[in-house]
Design brief:
homodimer, DNA-binding, 6% strand, mainly alpha, two-stranded antiparallel sheet, Arc Repressor Mutant, subunit A
DNA sequence: GGCAATGTAACACAAAATATTACAGGAGGA
DNA sequence: TCCTCCTGTAATATTTTGTGTTACATTGCC
């Protein structure tokens, strides 16, 4: 399977905040327009980003979403905020290997450590990229 | 989301072949018993492994699945055989970013390269592990 | 020919992601 | 104060993917 689009949507949201903060009122409706999904989807993801401490929302104030230190947010911060993988791990294991089979009995022993290492290096790779490392948004001077 | 259990099932299958080849008749029914899933699931995955050149099936011969050079098969070989990720990539991108928004217009430019690199290093990590690098199956001398 | 196993189609079901409508509640501004 | 805008969240629907199951044609050994 693929990592859900919640992740790219969340990065898109943060890039919008970086770009528009102070210039436009950033509402879920506004973000939905830029991203091309329903505003409720945006609000749910915003909730997750808020829970992770990446953004904060001043309620009632005609739609302002303010953030903090977004440049140093890593892709892992975003990923772990919106993806519910943490509990089960990246790899989905078949649930009922047969303990009466010598292979079935040992399959977790055979695989768990290595799969965990692969997951760890994947997450480490995500941690090594900060938002400021991404290609900057090309400024459109005609607008 | 998670990588589907097809991957761990496929590794389990290959470990069974390594362990039982020459000792037991290896049928989809037999494998289903060790792995704890339906035999049709096994047959479907066997088809994929066969298409990837990892195993071969001598049909009709009272259930024998023979393989080749399994020790040097990498986890990536198995992963790419059973996971349909190749076309879309590891990350699912939201489909309709707004080209009229400066961020929406550039979001692919901002992210695609970096996400591709992360996917590449993930796959490279999988390529670095061969089946013979996994923990060996503990031999049960009482059987 | 009979038997055992594969290869696949067809269908059912569950889980997750995504979309949509609805509405209660907070806060600023007239 | 009242109006309006926006958030937060529930409820529900739809789609997609993964998984389970039954059925059956086909293959090749005995």
């Amino acid at each position: 399977m693929q990592i859900s689009s919640r992740f790219t949507i969340a990065v898109h949201i943060l890039e919008c905040i970086k770009y528009f903060e102070g210039r436009n009122a950033i509402t879920s409706e506004f973000l939905a327009g830029s991203i091309g999904v329903n505003a409720v989807i945006i609000r749910r993801i915003i909730s997750q980003l808020k829970a992770a401490g990446l953004v904060s929302v001043e309620r009632g104030k005609t739609g302002i979403i303010s953030a903090r230190n977004l440049d140093d947010v890593t892709l892992y911060d975003v990923y772990s905020a919106v993806e519910a993988v943490s509990s089960d791990g990246l790899f989905h294991f078949h649930a009922n290997p047969n303990p009466k089979c010598p292979v079935g009995k040992n399959i977790h022993d055979i695989l768990d450590g290595t799969l965990r290492e692969i997951q760890n290096s994947f997450e480490e790779r995500m941690r090594s990229v900060k938002l400021k490392d991404l290609k900057p948004v090309t400024l459109d001077i005609t607008e």
